[in-house]
Amino acid sequence: MFTQLKNIDTAFKHIKLFSYLLIAACAGISCFAIYKSYQSSDKTKNTIYILANGKALEAFSADRAANIPVEIRDHVKMFHHDFFTLDPDDKEIQAGITKALYMADESAKKAYDDLKEAGYYNNIVSGNISQTVDVDSVQVDVNQYPFYFKCFATEKLVRSTSTITRSLVTQGYLRNVSRSDNNPHGFLIQHWEIINNQDVNTINK
Fold first, then answer.
1. Quick one: 17 and 89 in the same domain?
2. Closest CA to 171 of 140, 131, 136, 143
3. What is the mean pLDDT, run by run of 10 residues, along the chain of 205 residues?
């Protein structure tokens, strides 16, 4: 009889131990499932689908801080493209300058006014000159605010008789402003100045 009771007690202990192990396993699986569901939810929140040409393209959102250098470089490139890309057409020149001035403060407006007063834009139109700019690189310092940048670019002035290549170096600072259609990156260039703009090559036609 005592042997039978001992066997029952042992079996009960085994069942009890098995139950504890089963409960622990279930709890572990449940915690893992909850963790993975949160992880999946966060991944879904950071996934964006963009419709382009009838196709859904996957994109990912990220903190702006991680993209600041990239956005600054693109903002600076857009500004220089709009400010320095000139065709012998008053309306085209004004349209480009207007777009550029949305991205900078009065320092860019002053540079424009100085060039206009010096007859630079009139010479572009009367001489049938096309001016383009290629930004070679943009150095950015995001360890200070406003953010400092230095831009290295190449200008080309195409005349009917020659093509002039110029080295262009500018610098300035950027501060945060609200994003808009006219300023998609949400930066404003300030204290902008041209520190070098000299001819490096002339090809006569």
1. no
2. 140
3. 56 73 82 76 59 58 70 96 95 95 96 95 93 95 94 94 94 95 94 94 86
